[in-house]
Write a structure and sequence with these properties.
- There is one protein chain.
- This protein is α/β, with parallel strands linked by helices.
- It has a domain of about 160 residues: D-Amino Acid Oxidase, Chain A, domain 2.
- About 25% of the residues lie in helices and about 25% in strands.
- The strands form two sheets. Strands 3, 4, 5, 6, 11, 12, 13, 14 and 15 form a nine-stranded mixed β-sheet that branches.
- A hairpin with a 2-residue loop joins strand 9 and strand 10.
- Helix 1 crosses helix 6 and helix 1 crosses helix 9.
- The chain binds flavin-adenine dinucleotide.
- Flavin-adenine dinucleotide (FAD) binds next to helix 1, strand 11 and strand 15.
- The site of flavin-adenine dinucleotide (FAD) has 46 residues, from helix 1, strand 11 and strand 15.
- This is FAD dependent oxidoreductase domain-containing protein.
- It holds the Pfam family DAO.
Length: about 475
């Protein structure tokens, strides 16, 4: 199908405007060759009615449709996905390709906030998610450069390294079984183990890397073949209850009727569910692909990484089989320039204060890369949905029967969305409550969480991350 344009209500966001994707996302490495279904519309017109309408064709929306079709196909529901831009053109098509359970960044925070079991549930869920991803990629024979690897967390700042060791010891002392997979190194040999210059400590554990756009577009092919009606370049501008039952879903291309609605539009969820405005805030991140000149062989990186420099700038990095590197992060560099990233949906431009950070990153960071001539081949920005308490919002929209949300992944959706969408599909079809799923309890959306963000307070009166400087990484 030819590319189409759509007419969105707003391009960038200010306090008075609504929250919708920008019209003209900048190019990324992952989408250099667009899939044949990128701008697909299954039918010329919107269907008049679908039993289930999913808003957003990113990882969350597409995998929810996949599970509805594959796990519950016998229920025979009509499903439509309405996507504001091209399929997988949001964060999923613009990210770092790192499917990495995170034991150091956020789990200890959740253990402190909600207790050991509630925190551990998330770690265990992320590990299960990675295993399930590997399984489905093999089962469906999805060509998406998936690797199951070791991820290395690196600390170059001595004080931060010491703190990390304390966190590691604390998590081991909690008796969490998953910590058996983590090895922590400090002392003289750290540089030799991780290859990062000036490393003071590092830890390794199992993670995955992949080409997310290829993964999702393969699923898109499967669900479209199975009869899901995909309508790209069709932003949902409002959803209202139909007095006769169900919902009226409005788009610039006309209205359709829905039996149930699934909001899988992540950073932009408050554009259609304004009660989430303080809960899920669109925040920009930056990512790039680095290559070496033809004929140069750079040292092989066998692991994926989270690197923290001496001045505590965090970068996530994956090596690719073609010899290139995908790396992003640098939030500490741009954090103070709020206008460039916070409450900002403009992924047509880079983050000005961070756009040069990765110019000579490999030379500065890795032993043996000094003379490789490695340089940025492609650089892009993307929009993440940062939630007030750094957990996603999943489940029934409070007060909204037959409306579901799966959004707010805090720059960390790859290790949680696959199984979350599977469980959400179960909720939708079997009409079961969140508590009867295997999702971590802290992921459940609730009026309490909505109000807490609106009031800016936690139960004990402290300001949480305020959504602005969250526990996890931009
Ligand atoms: C630069 C960057 C790097 C990242 N790196 C990593 C990483 O390495 N590892 C990791 O785990 N996570 C990473 N993330 C986060 C990860 O990409 C997300 O958590 C995940 O992709 C979220 O998937 P999603 O489907 O919820 O959102 P999206 O992929 O953003 O999908 C939402 C979709 O909804 C559509 N939409 C929005 N509003 C509407 C509307 N009103 N009507 C119709 N459609 C609408 C959007 O166009 C979009 O296609 C990164 C994100 C960015 C931006």
């Amino acid at each position: 199908m030819p590319a189409r344009t759509h007419d969105l209500p707003t391009r960038t966001r200010d306090s008075s405007s609504q929250c919708f994707p920008a019209n003209n996302p900048g190019e990324t490495f992952w989408q250099t060759t667009q899939h044949k279904l990128h701008d697909h519309r299954s039918t010329e017109q919107l269907p008049e009615h679908s039993d289930i309408v999913i808003v957003g064709a990113g990882y969350a929306g597409v995998s929810t449709a996949y599970h509805l079709v594959k796990d519950h196909g016998d229920v025979n529901k009509s499903i439509a996905i309405l996507e504001a831009r091209g399929a997988c053109s949001g964060a999923t098509g613009r990210n770092g390709g790192h499917a990495r359970p995170d034991f150091y960044g956020h789990i200890p925070t959740y253990v402190d906030r909600a207790g050991a079991r509630a925190g551990a549930e998330i770690a265990e869920f992320e590990i299960n998610n990675l295993r399930a991803l590997k399984k489905i990629i093999e089962q469906e024979k999805i060509d998406c450069d998936f690797t199951l690897t070791r991820s290395i967390d690196v600390w170059c700042n001595a004080e931060a390294a010491e703190k990390a060791k304390c966190v590691y010891d604390r998590m081991v002392a909690e008796g969490f079984e998953y910590m058996d997979d983590v090895v922590f190194y400090n002392g003289d040999n750290v540089e030799g183990i991780c290859g990062v210059k000036g490393a003071k400590a590092c830890a390794s554990f199992t993670a995955g890397t992949m080409w997310p756009y290829k993964f999702i577009m393969h699923l898109v092919e499967l669900i479209v073949d199975a009869g899901v009606n995909l309508q790209t370049n069709t932003p949902v501008t409002s959803v209202t209850a139909d007095p006769e039952g169900g919902f009226i879903v409005e788009t610039p291309r006309g209205k359709m009727h829905a039996g149930k609605v699934v909001y899988a539009n992540n950073a932009y969820v408050s554009g259609v569910l304004p009660q989430y405005k303080k809960n899920i805030v669109p925040c920009k991140g930056i990512c790039c692909r680095i290559t070496v000149p033809d004929g140069v062989t750079a040292p092989l990186l066998n692991n994926s990484y989270i690197n923290r420099t001496e001045d505590n700038v965090l970068s996530y990095l994956i090596p690719r089989a073609d010899g290139s590197i995908v790396v992003g992060g640098a939030a500490a560099v741009f954090r103070k320039h709020e206008d460039q990233w916070y409450d900002n949906v403009d992924d047509s431009i880079l983050i000005d204060s961070a756009k040069d950070y990765y110019n000579d990153y490999m030379q500065k960071t890795y032993s043996g890369w000094e003379d490789t001539g490695a340089k940025i081949d492609k650089i892009w920005s993307g929009v993440m949905g940062y939630s007030y308490d750094s957990n996603p919002h999943i489940g029934n929209v409070p007060g909204g029967n037959d409306q579901y949300i799966l959004a707010g992944f805090n720059g960390h959706g790859m290790p949680v969305i696959w199984l979350s969408s599977k469980e959400l599909a179960k909720m939708i079809i079997q009409d079961i409550p969140f508590e009867q799923t295997s999702m971590p309890r802290l992921f459940q959306t609730s009026q309490f969480r909505i109000d807490r963000a609106l009031n800016g307070k936690t139960e004990d009166g402290d300001i949480l991350g305020s959504g602005k400087f969250p526990a996890t990484k931009p």
